[in-house]
């Protein structure tokens, strides 16, 4: 049987002083994962999530299809992602990271969809 271990966490302590009659120290806790790249993106950088949220509120995510393919040598792949909404291409990106090109294609798609509706992304 395979065991799954939790990701290692680091607790950061930031002391803050309290202004009571006796000096006390309180700690604010925040957790950070040791896994690189996790919890580093701000909410505005999650373009695939924003695209899915937009489509859910405007007709459903079934209208979204992705075409993702790899070209180039295996040691240095070039990824291409194309986002289609109802069969129409709205975003296309090429780069060295599969997740990166999907995020960029999603960003282009969200921008184009908001532009079509006359709204700001």
UniProtKB/TrEMBL annotation:
Coiled coil: none annotated. Gene3D superfamilies: 3.30.160.20. It holds the Pfam family dsrm. Residues 46-115 form the DRBM domain. This is DRBM domain-containing protein. The keyword RNA-binding applies. Keywords: RNA-binding. Signal peptide: none annotated. The keyword Disulfide bond does not apply.
């Amino acid at each position: 049987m395979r065991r799954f271990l939790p990701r290692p966490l680091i607790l950061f302590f930031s002391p803050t002083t309290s202004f009571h009659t006796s000096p006390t120290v309180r700690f604010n806790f925040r957790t950070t994962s040791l896994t690189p790249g996790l919890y580093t993106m701000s909410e505005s950088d999650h373009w695939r999530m924003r695209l899915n949220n937009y489509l859910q509120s405007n007709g459903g995510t079934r209208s979204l299809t992705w075409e993702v393919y790899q070209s180039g040598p295996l040691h240095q792949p070039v990824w291409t992602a194309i986002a289609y909404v109802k069969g129409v291409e709205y975003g296309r990106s090429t780069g060295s990271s599969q997740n990166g090109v999907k995020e960029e294609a999603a960003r282009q798609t969200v921008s184009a969809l908001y532009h079509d509706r006359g709204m700001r992304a």
